[in-house]
Amino acid sequence: MLFFVEVDHVKSGQMPTPEAGRAFIEQIILPTIARAEQLIAEKKILSGGPAAGRISLRLMIEADSLEDVDQIISSLPLWTVAETRVTPLIAFTDRRKHVQMLLERLVSMPSHP
Predict the structure, then answer these.
(1) What is the C-alpha to C-alpha distance for residues 42 and 69, in angstroms, rounded to an integer?
(2) Nearest to 2 by CA among 107, 90, 106
(3) Which end of the chain is more exposed for a tag (fewer CB within 10 A), N or C?
(4) What pTM was estimated for this model as a whole?
(5) What angle do CA 58, 91, 68 make, to 5 degrees?
(6) In the chain, domain spans
């Protein structure tokens, strides 16, 4: 199954000190990048990456279940300080079948004057 995943860092509103900024980079940003690169090598992340100018990720993840995608996302260090949205996707061929069935039902319905 394919999932579109959005991971956005939740800012506290306070200006970080240089020490806090350094710790955030060392403990969250760099380990998140390393983990994402590992997931790409394992072909769990199919595409995507960091959003330009933001502390955010946009990812296409392939997983067998919602539980699997949850485990993948929660393995990213950024997840602990982020808001995450997961959108399951279906294949275009499946959508075409559903829409064709809908069209057939609509065509078979009597029209009203």
Answers:
(1) 14
(2) 90
(3) C
(4) 0.84
(5) 55
(6) 2-108
